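Last lecture ended with a question: if I hand you only a sequence, what can you say about the shape of the protein? Today we answer it with a concrete record. The protein is AraC-type DNA-binding protein. Below, first the input exactly as provided, then the predicted structure, then a couple of comments.
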Amino acid sequence: MQQLQKMIKTYNIPAFLKYLNINASNSDTIQVVFYDEHPEKLLKSIPVKIDFYLLALKDKIEVQSPVEEMSDSYLFLDKPGNTIEWDLKEPFEGFAILISEKLLNKAVKDVSFADYNRHEALFLTKEEKETLYDLFRKAFAEFQKKNSATEVLVSYTSLILSYTQIYYERQFEARSNVYNRVVADFYKQLDNYLNEPNEKSGLPSVAYFAGQANLSTNYFGDLIKHFTGKAPIDHIHEGIIQIAKSRLLKTKLSVGEIAYSLGFDYPTYFTRFFRQKTGISPKVFRNQS
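The predicted structure:
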């Protein structure tokens, strides 16, 4: 896997546009593209990496259909370091903003979805499509000017991010039937993981459960918190404490044996964790009960 990662080529903004067969300038800070003007754009690609933020509003692409009635437009955001690949049968339409990490770093700090790294599509309603298309069109019009203002382009991009954050939250609610299954599966998988009697190779991580759901860690975290009111790491910690208390009270296992059974590398780590969450040590808890 590491060897494969080393072989994946990383592109900056102008090199990536050239790779897509899109005629563009040599600017490596920000570029705005109107896909409709480039009919020969690349429809299939092996995995490649990018070193910039890519916001793409696309029409006529093949993605998993949303549960509810939506428009035919979707928004994707990829961040620097992401590996992306695609295989499309038909040309797509829409816009893209390619912007350097330096220019957008301040704006992305306020939006959690910027850390989604599995290319989760944002399905747009017709009204949302019109709002975002208007902003992308205005950004493209500004970019076409001979002396385009970078600060204006960054402002349009930031506004798009703000709307996108709201739309992702709407998507959680609109697709609640699907996402409630994700929550239920998380509870079941966490319970199975913690109740497995054999020693674990490590503590359960949010990334592990996100991978089981085929979602990025941040997207999964936002989803779980949206529907349960708690972050997945809080659920994991509560589950560990619950199982630990049960084994302290109902078994004769030593504190060290319980620690290893839960995935702690050292009993001292478990003792510190238990005291932090309950206010007392495992030994004191066992003796008091």
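Comments.
1. The CA atoms of residues 3 and 148 lie 42 Å apart.
2. The longest strand covers residues 52-59.
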